[in-house]
Amino acid sequence: MRKETNLAVKDPLAAIDAIVRRHNITAGATIPILQEIQNTFGFVAPEALTRISDLTGIPESELYSIVTFYAQFRLQPMGKNIISVCHGTACHLAGAEKVTETIQFAAGAKPGETSADGLFSLEKVACLGCCSLAPVVNVNDETHGRVTPDKAQALIQSLREADQKENSGSKGESRNGKPAV
Ligand code: FES
User: Taking the CB of residue 130, how many other CB atoms lie within 10 A of it?
Assistant: First the structure.
């Protein structure tokens, strides 16, 4: 299932304030605060770091070092499609690096980042538990095995086409699903 980001929080600053207060505004609560911010918004925006810094007195640079050090934190919203390339030993030996490079180029997103069009987030992950299928790529939690660079390229292309189809379909219809006139 696709990971969703909750960008529809009505008053983001009030939400951040409430999270920080809930953790008693202490320096020791930095990681739980950042985790809750990420759970609420889907990522940790630079504006959130500024607000946490204002409320707690923790320097923004320190907060930034934490979110960039721990792989669990994201500074950008997740893309529409989450591509996870396994870099466990079996997949690494079977060519995961080449597959990652191909996806990076085709999707326009580096590992740990989201493409500028918001379509793809690329991540390198540890063993996905199906080493006999190496190299393995998960696309929105659907597993693809024995992925070659060509197969990876085709995968990204098909996701782009699906998105274009979805967009052109919604443009040609009115809100009630009937063709727009
Ligand atoms: S190493 Fe990739 S699935 Fe196990």
Answer: 15
